[in-house]
Amino acid sequence: MPGGPLRKALAVLEALAEASRPLTLSELSRLVNLPKSTLHRLMLSLTDIGLAVRRESKSYELGTYLSRLGATSGPAGVQRLSYPVTPFLLELFQLTNRIVSLGTLSGTNVQHVGTLYGQEHARLAMALRQPVPAHGSAAGKLLLALSRRDPADLPGTAGAGEGATRGRRDALRREFERIRRTGLSYARSECIPDLVELAAPVRLGRAGPVAAVVVGDTVNTRDLRGVARALLDTVSAIEQQLADAC
């Protein structure tokens, strides 16, 4: 998956990050060795999601997306390596036309960072900016399951009575076991109405997952499990990129 489009996007972002001033399309073309026609199409995508900004002078500079990603409360390792991960998330977004983000575990909550989305998903994507209880989202369930957390230790899993509490925790244990077998978590969000998510883990070596790559959509669209292959390919490519960066 880390083919031409990814390398081109990363080369452009690196050039913008290293520049001391905004760069024109001609200057970028020389720096990254791309035809202006190809670069123009790429810049339309990068500016559309905030990775780059087009100035009134028709020059470009790095957008706020990466700084917002680095300023989140996710694990330090994810913040440090978010820059090389971003082009992979961008390609997954372009492939699926769904909400794409990184989910990171903070205590018993999940924080979504680096969210990419189209206008039709703006409402759901805005809701993802707030931390949500981990046991109520696909990303959270995935990260909790793979970190071997016991549902009995999670706040908010109680029901109306002891029987309901026990049933809720037993259901979570069964779901955690299924996630460990499949490596994927598919769930309707319990915190954001109309959101359904599919999540896969990003690992570093043999350590537990540092984050989850999440694809989201509205519940009344096509089954998200149809994008599982693209999601798993993205995770594999990210892990290889992170391994090379370490």
Description:
This protein is elongated. The protein is of the alpha+beta class and 246 residues long. α1 packs across α5 and α7 packs across α8. The strands form 2 sheets. It has a 6-stranded antiparallel β-sheet with strand order 6-5-4-9-8-7, sandwiched between helices. It has a 3-stranded antiparallel β-sheet with strand order 1-3-2. It is built from 9 helices and 9 strands. The chain starts with a helix and ends with a helix. β4 and β5 form a beta hairpin.
Shape: elongated
Query: How much of the polypeptide forms β-strand, as a percent range?
Result: 15-25%
- Taking the alpha carbons of the first and last residues, their distance comes to 20 Å
- Class from helix and strand fractions: alpha+beta
List keywords for this structure.
alpha+beta, six-stranded antiparallel sheet
Summarize the entry for a quick read:
The relative contact order is 0.12.
Task: Describe the secondary structure blueprint for this structure.
Layout: H1 4-18, E1 23-24, H2 25-32, H3 36-48, E2 52-54, E3 59-62, H4 65-70, H5 76-96, E4 99-106, E5 109-116, H6 122-127, E6 132-133, H7 138-146, H8 162-182, E7 185-188, E8 195-203, E9 209-218, H9 228-245
Antiparallel strand pairs: 1-3, 2-3, 4-5, 4-9, 5-6, 7-8, 8-9
Helix pairs in contact: 1-5, 5-9, 7-8
